[in-house]
Amino acid sequence: MCKKTVLNRLTGRDFYLSYAAFSIVATNRLKLFKLGKFVDINEVSKSDDMYGVWKNVNNLNKFLGFRLTNIDLIQFISTLLSQKVVYTEIGVSVLKNFYLMANFLNKSELYAFDINDIYKPMEEKFKFVNKSGIKKNYVLDNNEIIYFKGDVFSSDDLTAFSDEFKGKTNLIYSDADHTEKGLLFEYEYFYKLVLDEEFILYFDDVNSKTMPGFLKILEKIRTERPSSSINGYTFWINGWMGKNKNQHRNGIISTVNIHNALKKNKIKLKNFKIL
């Protein structure tokens, strides 16, 4: 067994990551440590679907370990975009990942979409600006934050959400309904309206139910943008519970050649496939 493998097992961290990549991991773990136990069973129980947390309250409060998680990866690939990042997250739940993204970006616009009211313990971390109907505006440092309450299966909600954008969005994290129908609904009534020329679409939990939808979206974008080079990737990675839950398959569709950047920064993703 090589030295790096032994160290990796002992420390529980991806020892082969570049400094730039691991610094993202370390910063995120420190941010979460300072948050403390922000996922509270009494608060999530106020939602009919428990903010999608269900039985994972304890695991969400546990230390993630130092292995790369999907939000670490999303932050890293966001640096590959040539323009200012306009970040959108569909299905923000208790805003764990969204909060980390809001702390990572600078002078950006961040849009949150969820079927629930904003999770109160996390709302307190943002500075409230105003409210208009089912939309709330906040700021965090130099970032503008828009929270929109809506249903991914409502074309009216998705279209109304798209109307809130000042321009286009170039980074979307989809983590709402994990079905083929859900992904295709997002694509038809949201992505097609707001997706920038240069973009990264990141999909959590590309399982047997969502893979057909993921592949259809990849094909649709390639057909609709014949002059663009559209890259597709799938891989396995830890999610928002880190080491406390097994890795699962995620997917990316992007105009950015992410594969080259991963190699350059020594980021090795399990079962990485180019589509």
Helix content, binned percent: 25-40%
Largest sheet: 10 strands, mixed
Shape from CA axes? globular
N→C terminal distance: 32 Å
Number of beta-strand segments: 10
The DSSP helix count reads: 11
Number of domains: 1
Coarse structural class: alpha/beta
Mean pLDDT: 91
Uncertain segments are none
Order of helices and strands: HHHHHEHEHEEEHEHEHEEHE
CATH class equals: Alpha Beta
CATH topology (level 3) name: Rossmann fold
Q: What proportion of the residues form beta strands (DSSP E)?
A: 15-25%
Describe this structure in words.
The chain has a ten-stranded mixed sheet, sandwiched between helices. With 275 residues, the chain is an alpha/beta fold. Helix 2 (19-35) packs across helix 5 (70-78). The protein contains eleven helices and ten strands. The protein has one domain (16-274): Vaccinia Virus protein VP39 (Rossmann fold, 3-Layer(aba) Sandwich). The radius of gyration is 18 Å and the shape is globular. The mean pLDDT is 91. The longest helix has 17 residues, at 19-35. The chain is 37% helix and 23% strand. A hairpin with a 2-residue loop joins strand 4 and strand 5.
